[in-house]
Amino acid sequence: MRFIPDCIVLLKRLLGDERVPLGAKLAVGLLLPYLVLPFDLIPDFIPVAGQIDDALLVAVVVAYVSRRAGRQVIADLWPGSDRGLRVVLAATRAS
Questions:
Q1: Of the candidates 94, 62, 56, 58, which has an alpha carbon nearest to the alpha carbon of residue 75?
Q2: Residues 12, 24: Cα–Cα separation, whole Å
Q3: Torsions phi, psi of 62, nearest 5?
Q4: CB atoms < 10 A from the CB of 48, how many?
Q5: pLDDT tens-digit profile of 84-95?
Q6: Which of 75, 22, 82, 20 is nearest to 92 (CA)?
Q7: How many CB atoms lie within 10 A of CB 78?
Q8: How far is CA 37 from CA 63, 67, 87, in A?
Q9: 77 near 14, Cβ under 8 Å?
Q10: CA distance 79 to 47
Q11: pLDDT tens, 44-94?
């Protein structure tokens, strides 16, 4: 239940961290409004599929930030559980 809010906190923290390069911050900065807007590639009102495109974009952006800033930055800024961090870091490898 806390995974999505933890991801949002992570994205906000990435924006404020000096170890994250400007290009990676730009990717995060573009992702956040996309997640909030009601219109997406697949609209959020479509059950399951509407949330999958959001989750995939989060995974791609976090993977990009991880490649640019390092996995340790993601680990340092992750606000959630160790289990949630393992999921996020695994997604960065898969993306």
A1: 62
A2: 12
A3: -65, -40
A4: 7
A5: 999 999 988 865
A6: 75
A7: 19
A8: 22, 27, 25
A9: yes
A10: 28
A11: 778 888 788 888 888 899 999 999 999 999 999 999 999 999 999 998 886
